[in-house]
Each structure stands twice: as structure tokens, then as C-alpha cells.
Amino acid sequence: MSSPSSETFGAPAGAVAVDAVLSAGVRAALEVTRRGCDELLPEGDWIRKLQRSEATGVPLRIKLGLDPTAPDIHLGHTVVLNKLRQLQDIGHTVIFLIGDFTSMIGDPSGRNTTRPPLTPEQIKLNAETYYRQASLVLDPDKTEIRYNSEWCDPLGARGMIQLASRYTVARMMERNDFHDRFHAGTSIAVHEFLYPLMQGYDSVALKSDLELGGTDQKFNLLMGRHLQAEYGQEPQCILTMPLLVGLDGVEKMSKSKNNYIGISEPANQMFAKLLSISDTLMWSYFTLLSFKSEAEIAGLRAEVEAGRNPKDAKVLLAKEITARFHGTAAADTAEQDFNNRAKGGIPDDVPAVSLTGAPLGIGALLKQANLVASSSEGLRMVEQGGVRIDGAVISDKGLKVDAGSFVVQVGKRKFARVTLG
What residue stretches are annotated with the RNA-binding S4 domain (predicted)? Predict the structure, then answer.
């Protein structure tokens, strides 16, 4: 019984087939598939699937599964969603799989502890928002929406035992996160072994030709190939996409690390966050998130290297991404708002806050206006020169603010229109 992590794929990607001998349609589809991807395995099998699809007119079945572990989708998720949309646009069937069953197990990928399982109520609530948000990237009229509880629930105890017999503990322990936890003496719950098996079984149930995922999902994706062969199906190919680095420039984008950009965030906030990434990280975002051609991106990069201000390129990226989720007009307004803030101006969308207790200490006022997490943080911001009232810098930590209406600013981006009684 072969291991997903040790499966042999034959010749390396570039040596499987000479692109020049392929039809124009297959070459174009292969170019779309390869763009920005980390691995396409095995590429020779994928070429043969594309050739068969072209010859028969039968679209290939391309699957992406997401567990609804949080209510919001962020730009990191859209890396694979964008690839899914590109393959959808060239005529293939896209299956957006919501892992409502596997969410109850919890994906152990990259974990050094057991992931706390979600309740059915949490899963249902999160799943309700997933497709609506994914439809901002995918064509909803051409997307097959499935839930893996459709086939996992009916499997039952007998079916689960039969599925578990298709793989060995020794092979499961070759997986890096299980291997590391075992040797570190960290507990591994038995139900965690079920996660890759159930994700692999999804590919059997859906008769998938290609499954997409982040690089951290490679073991799970290869499990799908293994189980399809076990059940007598033609094994799927797998396509892994790089993990999008978050706003901190270090860790992968994650809501738990608070380095993310949610696709449902307000346009002004999305635009400002995109402008905050480093000039170096910007090019990775272009490759993984932009719909510009690779030639356009290369041309833009050459201009920056020749002396053009990198902020110009970053603004183009921020406007493209913001317009995708909020429309062109909102992206234009977000740019104007950002420029206004950069000049020290007051943005249009300042939240109004009503407070009582005048005269009120500046630290308490900042906290009650939700501009800082605590009064002591507010006083530190005053000390650092980061607090303004109606544009004037506040330097007195002992200031008592009298009754009235005024705009309070903390840092470059936090504003509140305060009415103090």
C-alpha cells in the first residue's frame, strides 16, 4: 500500500511533455493551471486529462474543499478560489465543497496540538456565509456546491471501519505534524487520523479529476489519489498553491494571527491594509491575487526597478482587489479617503460616539470612544504624540476634556466624532 507522502510521480513537471506538441487549447489550459502554482502532480496525468476533455467535450471535475472554521473568508482563501475561477472560465466543472462533516473532526495540518472541534451550530452558522462570500470570486451559475456530510453521515460505523482499513498507521505517522507530535510526546487523538481519510474520501464521492489546496494540504490531497485508486477510480491530480503571507510579512494570512484582510471588510479598510504591505511582499500579492497577466506584472516590476515609485504599483494592486469585492466607485473613494488621511484630513466615514462625564480624562475618553484598548494605552499614545483633537496634537496626559463635539484621532487610521456631555 503506497503512501501519499512517498508516491512516485515519474518525470519532473517540465519533462513530462513538450508543450509544443500539444494543441493550442491544451497549451492554454496548462498555462492557466501552472500560473502561480507551487506543484502540479503528476503533470503528465493532468495533460492527458486535458487532452481527453478536449477530445470528448466532457469538462473535468475540479474540487476545492474548505472547512467552515470561521465565519469569514480572507484574501488567503482567494488564492485557491482565483485558480478555481480561472479553470472554471476555460470550461471545467468547479465543485466548491463545504466540509461541514470534516469540521467536526478538525484538520490537524500544521498543528502541534489537537484542534478543538466545532459544534454543529458553529459549523452551520459559518457555512451559511462561505458560499455567499466565495461567489464574489466564483461564477455562482457554474459552481456545484456540495457538503461532505452528504456521503460522510450515511457511511456509518461499518463504512468508517472499512475506510480505515485502506490505510496504515505506519504510513499515517510519516505525516510531518503527526511525526513531530509523537516524538515530542504531544498527544494525538485517534479521531485526528480520520481527517485525511475523510478528506480523501470526498474525492472518491465526487469523482474528482483535480483537487486544489494550499501547500500545507499536500498530504490530504495525495490521500485522495490513494483512496481513488483503492476504490478503482482514476486518481485525481493535485495542484497546490503557495500560502499567502499576511500583513505582518512573516506568517501565513490567518484570522487567528490578526494579519488578514477579510473579503467582506469595508472598502476603505481593505484598501488601507493593502497599501500597508511591504514593497517586496507586493509582488507575491500581484502573482497570487491579481488578474493582470504575467507579462503586465513583469512590465510593472521592471518600471519599479527602473525607478518608478513602488507605491504607484501598490495603489494599482489595492484598487484592483478593492474593486473586485466592492466595485470601482468604492475603490476610487477608498483611494481618496486614504490620501485624505495621509494628509492629516478627516475621512468621510468617521463613527459617531456619544459620551458623558465631562470633564473626562483623555485616557478614559480614548478608551470609551473605542480608539484604544485601555486608558493606559491611550496615555502612551498621548506621550508618543499620536493623539489629535480637531487636528491639534495632544501632549498633556493629564488633560481633562470639556463637554462639546470634536473629532478625535489616534494614529493615522483611527477616528471618532465624539459628543461629550
Answer: 365-405
pLDDT tens digit sequence for 215-256 = 988 998 999 999 999 999 999 999 999 999 998 888 999 877
d(CA 52, CA 209) in angstroms, rounded, equals 12
Using alpha carbons only, give the angle 149, 151, 152 rounded to the nearest 5 degrees. 60
Q: What is the pLDDT of residues 69-100, one digit of tens each?
A: 767 789 999 999 999 999 999 999 999 999 88
Report domain extents, the chain. 4-241, 273-342, 352-420
The answer on pLDDT for 209 being more than 50 is: yes
377: cell is 494605552
Under 8 Å between Cβ of 85 and 141? no
pLDDT for position 106: 63
Note the residue count of the chain: 421
- d(CA 225, CA 231) in angstroms, rounded, equals 10
In a 10 Å sphere around its CB, with 0-12 CB exposed, 13-18 middle and 19+ buried, how is residue 22 labelled? Answer: middle
CB proximity list for 190: less than 8 A, separation 6 or greater? none
Give residue 184's pLDDT band: very low, low, confident or very high (50, 70, 90).
confident
Strands 237-241 and 352-355, by their bridges, are unpaired
DSSP at 358: S
Spatial distance between the Cα atoms of 333 and 141, rounded to a whole number of angstroms:
30
- CB of 411 closer than 8 Å to CB of 394: no
29 phi/psi in degrees, rounded to 5: -65, -35
- pLDDT above 80 for 302: yes
What is the fold of 352-420? Answer: 3.10.290
The radius of gyration of the chain from alpha carbons, rounded to an integer in Å, stands at 25
Q: Please, are residues 276 and 269 in contact by the beta-carbon 8 Å criterion? A: no
Alpha-carbon span 177 to 199, nearest angstrom:
17
pLDDT of 108 above 80: no
pTM, entire model: 0.71
Cell 519599479 found at: 304
Q: At 119, phi and psi to the nearest 5?
A: -80, 155
Q: Which CATH superfamily groups domain 4-241?
A: HUPs (3.40.50.620)
Q: How far apart are CA 407 and CA 420, in angstroms?
A: 11
